[in-house]
Design a protein that fits this description.
Length: 330
Amino acid sequence: MFGMRRRAFITLLGGTAAWPLAARAQQSERIRRIATLTGIANEEGGQERITIFVQTLAQLGWIVGRNARIESRWGGGDAGVIRKHAAELVALAPDVIMATGGAAVGQLLQITRTVPIVFTIVPDPVGSGFVNSLSRPGGNATGFVQFEYSLAGKWLELLKEIVPSTTRAAIIWDPSQTAAIGQYAVIQAVAPSLGVEVFPINVRDLTGSEFGVAAFASRGGNGMIVTASALTVVHREQIVALAKQHKLPTIYPVLDFIASGGLITYGADISIHMRHAAGYVDRILRGEKPADLPVQAPTKYELVINLKTAKALGLTVPDSLLARADEVIE
């Protein structure tokens, strides 16, 4: 879904050893240190999002090797790894940290309340305790909300629309995350009005998840929703494979799942978040405070449908749904 590839990413960010040389060649211009901490793995989609972030910074005047240095770390969905990298980055005393995902932001805020943090892909920064409010963050963190919780109810409505006979839906979630609890609560609240029972399946135990999905499907389960979290994205290949294996129509929260063969995604365009995050980093580097920059929510969500997967599941996507789609994968 992204235009850049691994080689372009390496070309743009690679060669940290060369950066000090570039810095010495530009003694007249102060080098600003920017760190990035990503909760998911160092894989193509994540790399390309960071590339978008770096390219936008360059457009704003922050050029790697001239007046900016970027240190990047990847968490792989592992809390221990994320904690370790968060400590490493804070110890480098960066001017600002751009963090993606609630797990990354949470670990950073346990370590520092002074280093400015700009976050993206965080569903509930207030409920998670990252900011005091959206309009007045009040601390050292601000950024961009991945979605409002009401979106989780739309996922169930979409599932019911594409398969009207749905009566039992599995919910893949990470109950250790505040945001996942919020998403599940919304789905659970909407379910009775749609005549659907919901069954949570914990993604933290992938082997258990496989057994859980198999048992759910064998007992008449006929649909699935994957909530947004670092772990669901990290395990997306396995989750999509389970949906296909058990012929479960599934709604996913981000485009990464479509690239893995998922049926439908409905969520914000994360590449836009990365551009906006670069804008906030620019403003902080020029003297503004995170406490004064309001947390922003998406103004648009995108519906993407994979007709190839629908065909494999034996589904006919309603014309009304196709008409609303922002993109249809043939």
